[in-house]
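User: Please fill in residues for this 407-position structure.
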């Protein structure tokens, strides 16, 4: 059973939902995650979405207690090394206590990690929804199913939603953090259950399987199947038809689960976190996804901006100092040159370059601040993290990033 979260805890970085009062907006990622059971991280590729999801999950395990699971549905396997695991798949694995000890942290809870195994999850889905043992066996043994299960359109996204629903229904975890594919695919991730249900009731599917449901093929469709038989082979068409006929026996389960997943995504316990940088392309993707979430009436809890320039660049006094440094570089160089053992003219050029670079960065920082303000109009929380000096390769790095975006 999950470890129950206390209503309030003085060791936490923020008040619990009960302490804040119903309807009062949260002010930090810490408070947001304390109030939710599912967090879905979305964003374009290369913005640090996977590491942000893992960092948020690690911080929740450290500060909130209970059992926290981070799930990646991105085919890139980037979490294992950072979490101190040799690898992981469909079955969740616990991050070893030694990894936290090496980071100098003693967590209040447990951190688990899993990565979607599409074929294994489809097999489990068939076993769950097949109407009887015979149908289950025929589906699992169908050559087409064996070759393409987990590869045809929408399968990865659909099974990811199935797996999320299953994990949440099991009740083993207090918090599940999901790292989705890059943004446009993440929209597919959300819409996959409904699209899959629509596909299994589509006219195209009926055209494919009708000659195998009945010996009667009308004159208009017969030439199509004769040509298809010559090109693809009768056995291949038969395998396709059998595959979809068998899957249609599970149609009711698909539709029922699609509706249940939709309800879960809209549940007050579920929130979305958009991860981005302030570069042009990622910002465009973030804006797109924020619009999608608003249009679909999903809860957008937070915006996390990575690789943001530091706030001190916006300090007016520092800007004045940089301007004065450029204007009086030679005078300053004359005074500093003896102390540094440098040639005054050369030192003056260096100081002017430093001042100019600072002023240029200040211009970029102002533009970033304006973008941040525009993006921050919708989410309850906006968190930022600067460019880190080194790539994240262990739990220490994840927790360092987590600390930057937590409060």
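Assistant: Residues filled in for all 407 positions:
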């Amino acid at each position: 059973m999950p470890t129950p979260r206390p209503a309030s805890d003085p060791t936490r970085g923020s008040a619990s939902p009960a302490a804040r009062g119903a309807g009062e907006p949260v002010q930090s990622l810490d408070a947001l995650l304390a109030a939710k059971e599912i967090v879905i991280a979305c964003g374009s590729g290369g913005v640090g979405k996977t590491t942000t999801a893992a960092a948020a999950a690690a911080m929740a395990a450290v500060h909130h207690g209970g059992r926290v699971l981070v799930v990646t549905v991105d085919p890139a396997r980037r979490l294992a090394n950072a979490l101190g695991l040799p690898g992981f798949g469909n079955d969740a694995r616990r991050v070893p206590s030694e990894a936290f000890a090496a980071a100098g942290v003693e967590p209040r809870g447990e951190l688990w990690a899993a990565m979607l195994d599409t074929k294994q999850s489809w097999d489990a889905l068939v076993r769950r929804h097949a109407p009887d043992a015979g149908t289950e066996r025929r589906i699992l043994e169908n050559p087409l199913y064996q070759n393409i299960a987990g590869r045809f359109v929408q399968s990865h996204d659909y099974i990811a939603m199935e797996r999320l629903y299953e994990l949440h229904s099991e009740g083993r975890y207090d918090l599940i953090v999901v790292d989705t594919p890059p943004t446009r695919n993440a929209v597919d991730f959300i819409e996959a259950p409904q699209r899959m249900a629509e596909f299994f009731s589509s006219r195209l599917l009926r055209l494919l399987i009708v000659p195998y449901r009945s010996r009667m093929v009308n004159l208009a469709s017969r030439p199509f199947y004769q040509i298809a038989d010559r090109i693809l082979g009768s056995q291949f068409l038969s395998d396709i038809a059998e595959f979809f006929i068998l899957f249609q026996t599970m149609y009711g389960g698909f539709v029922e689960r699609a509706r249940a997943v939709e309800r879960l995504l809209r549940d007050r316990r579920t929130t979305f976190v958009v991860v981005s940088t302030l570069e042009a392309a990622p910002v465009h993707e973030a804006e797109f996804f924020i619009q999608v979430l608003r249009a679909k009436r999903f809860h957008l809890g937070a915006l996390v901006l990575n690789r943001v320039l530091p706030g001190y660049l916006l300090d007016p006094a520092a800007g004045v100092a940089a301007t004065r440094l450029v204007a009086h570089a030679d005078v300053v160089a004359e005074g500093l040159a003896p102390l540094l053992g440098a040639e005054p003219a050369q030192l003056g050029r260096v100081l002017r370059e430093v001042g100019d670079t600072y002023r240029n960065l200040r211009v970029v920082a102002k533009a970033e601040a304006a973008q941040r303000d525009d993006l921050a109009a919708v989410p309850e929380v906006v968190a930022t993290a600067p460019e880190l000096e080194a790539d994240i390769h262990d739990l220490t790095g994840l927790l360092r990033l987590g600390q930057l975006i937590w409060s």
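For context: Residues 316-367 form one domain.
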